[in-house]
Give the backbone structure.
Amino acid sequence: MGEVILQMKNITKRYPGVLALNDVSINFRKGEVHALLGENGAGKSTLIKVLSGAVTNDEGEIVIDGETYNHMTPATSRKHGVEVIYQEYNLIPSLSVAENVYLGKQMHGLIDKRTMEKETQAIFDRFNIENINPKKLIRDLSPAQQQLVEITKAISKNARILVMDEPTAQLTQSEVEKLYEIIAAMKAQDVAIIYISHRLEELFAVTDCVSIMRDGCYVDTVETKETNRDQLIALMVGRELTNTYRTESLATDEVVLEAMHYEGFRNEDCSFKLYKGEILGVAGLVGAGRTELMRLVYGADKKLGGELILNGQKISINSPKDALEKGIGLIPEDRKVQGCFLNNTIEWNIAISDIKNQTQGGLVSEAKIQKLAQEFKDKLNIKTPSLKQKVRNLSGGNQQKVVLAKVLARKTDIIIFDEPTRGIDVGARYEIYTLMSELVEQGKSIIMISSDMEELIGMSDRVIVMSEGRITGELKREEFSQEAILSLASNE
């Protein structure tokens, strides 16, 4: 074990009505990959912001390199080599890779692009990062390449404590393995890595120890090799979770939706059926056209061909408004951008899709809005001190519930979930699965796009698989396996 480089001692942070961190103490060592694990709202992000100087703690102290601070500033944090790679990349799309890598770095004399490009390439070579040209603009890179540029930025600044927040959220399996190689190389150079992820399998693959947080409090630190998935979940949520996935199918033989030869700019000749009470999984590799197909069905993108049949009747959907009026709702992949209005309140977000029914005497009724919002707060267990809370202040899992409430408020019978649990902790994930099961028990039907193989196999009654904009196969529950799904996804 390396020596302790960072101690966060008795850290407390209060917000109005919320104790975000309550007397948290954790040590971090050189050359160690140390995971922070906890449900959304557990305090992980606040702790990291205290470390980076973005948030000032009310109590406690930070000891770094033997120096003690009552609180950090961004400049002090950077001086000690603390670098944070957030989920939302901090890159400027209009600048080149090399310019982003050296942005904000102390440069002497005139900025020499050729030198920046040469030094950026040297870092790429050192960590065996391929297929990224230092001259290329950030906006022309894939999300995975942008992630690698963020890591390169940290390396170029001689990071000694590197925080990675959900680093694999947008990566394919091969890209994840590349990330693991880079982490191993940085670990060998005595960099302390603080790793935040909701994907438990990652923690066992890459971390040395795990510190668990719950409700703003420190719970325990365990050696990764000496724990298991069930123990981590129990520590994280304060209870054991059983029967995570569905055990029986409630699908009937009644077809509620049929797409026939659907086509768009990225989809060709796609046909599928959805049955009443069914969860239909949609699998495929990144770029397979899954989201694009469902956006066509929902009317968010323009259809170029094909027919849609709803409950035996041919229908035309040209906009999301048409879809909602016909009882079809969509929970988008990017809930922050496409799913909700972050700067508006919870009650406003829930009511907005059904605002026509929230009026009295021709005017919007505050009482009706509050009643509707309270109904879904209770039904979906949305955790918030007030329905007047802005959605941006909620955890990821609770934001997802607000988006779901907005769709359910329109009394939709067919709901499309696009990556329903991405970036959501285990406890909230379990609640989303339970809600989905309750919806099909009520006779509703669900289409679920997911890149999580365990989720697909555990929640779906049937899976259609896509590759390069086409549907390449269909699997019944008894045919499910990771190999079968990947084979069809690779169009082998």
Remarks:
- The mean pLDDT is 87.
- The radius of gyration is 24 Å.
